[in-house]
Write a structure and sequence with these properties.
The chain has one domain: Rossmann fold. Helix content is about 50%, strand content about 10%. Helix 6 links the parallel strand 5 and strand 6. Helix 2 crosses helix 7 and helix 5 packs parallel to helix 6. It comes from Cyclophora tenuis (Marine diatom). Keywords: NADP, Oxidoreductase. Pfam families: adh_short. Belongs to the short-chain dehydrogenases/reductases (SDR) family.
Length: about 290
């Protein structure tokens, strides 16, 4: 069954879900790849991110596809997704026939650290960008989807949600929230024509991950080429990239304390390098001030 779903099952006709797809965090990585993939299929796209110049570049790239898809953009900094920002986004999409929402925007630590080493701004931004954005964006599109009795909400989580992740505690917890949120919403609304799916990538070659492409690390386009085929199906939690699914299965066979110990060791080494880099940059900045 897993082989069929991953390799043989055809993707849904997403235009039957609605005329528009909304993608957050759409100027890089998985979000950008999804926006372009939707446009290629003839879906109109609303792309949302914080940097207008990057949004304009993606909009231009979509228009150059000449697929007939329309592209709109909304400038929004999800690290401060207050009522004013929510209203701005809602005003831009409330009258559209939104069939697909990709909640992709997110942020991780600059490098692994103990929770008490994070500053208040970092703690707040991690919550805003990983939890609040997904929750409020879902509330925006859900009423319209329910009234039309069709729609698909895709929440991008992370392999971090599946395991104990010391030194990335808040990020891991936020991604776990996305998984549970998606499972519950899918159970609530599937019979009403709206599916909610949590997609769990492991490492993808994005700026956030800072990883190079390899067999285990697909490009965003490679990931999305598989991920898009799952949209609209009732599977609540999926790892579309088959080697990520295999990686998850292997890790699931190990006791949690072993996985946690391995990750702790890896993260301590990365933390040491990060602290060393911060100290060097601070010293350089202090030297420039004294000149």
């Amino acid at each position: 069954l897993a082989t069929y779903k991953t390799f043989l099952r055809p993707g849904r006709n997403l235009k039957k879900l609605g005329e528009w797809a909304v993608v957050t965090g759409a100027t890089d990585g998985i979000g950008k790849a999804y926006a372009i993939a939707f446009a290629k299929k003839g879906l109109n796209v609303v792309i949302i991110s914080r940097t207008e110049s990057k949004l304009q570049d993606v909009k231009k790239e979509i228009e150059e596809l000449k697929s007939g898809a329309e592209c709109k953009y909304v400038v929004c900094d999800y690290s401060n997704f207050d009522k004013s920002a929510q209203d701005k986004v809602n005003d831009a999409i409330k009258d559209l026939d939104v069939g697909v929402l990709i909640n992709n925007v997110g942020i991780s630590y600059r490098y692994p650290r103990y929770f008490d080493e994070l500053n208040d701004t970092e703690v707040a931004q991690l919550m805003e960008m990983n939890v609040s954005s997904t929750t409020w964006m879902t509330r925006m599109v859900l009423p319209g989807m329910l009234s039309r009795k069709r729609g698909a909400i895709i929440n991008i989580s992370s392999g971090s949600a599946m395991y104990t992740l010391p030194l990335l505690a808040e990020y891991s917890a936020a991604k776990s929230y996305i998984e549970k949120f998606s499972r519950a919403l899918n159970a609530e609304y599937q019979k009403k024509g709206v599916t909610c799916q949590c997609q769990i990538p492991f490492y993808v070659a994005t700026k956030l991950a800072k990883m190079r492409k390899s067999l285990m690390v697909p490009t965003p386009k490679e990931y999305v080429n598989l991920g898009i085929k799952w949209i609209g199906y009732p599977d609540a939690v999926v790892s579309p990239y088959f080697l990520h699914a295999l990686q998850g299965w292997v890790l699931d066979q190990l006791p949690d304390f072993i996985v946690s110990a391995i990750i702790m060791s890896m993260h301590l080494a990365t933390r040491k390098r990060g602290l060393k880099k911060d100290a060097r940059l601070a010293a350089e900045a202090a030297g420039k001030k004294s000149e």
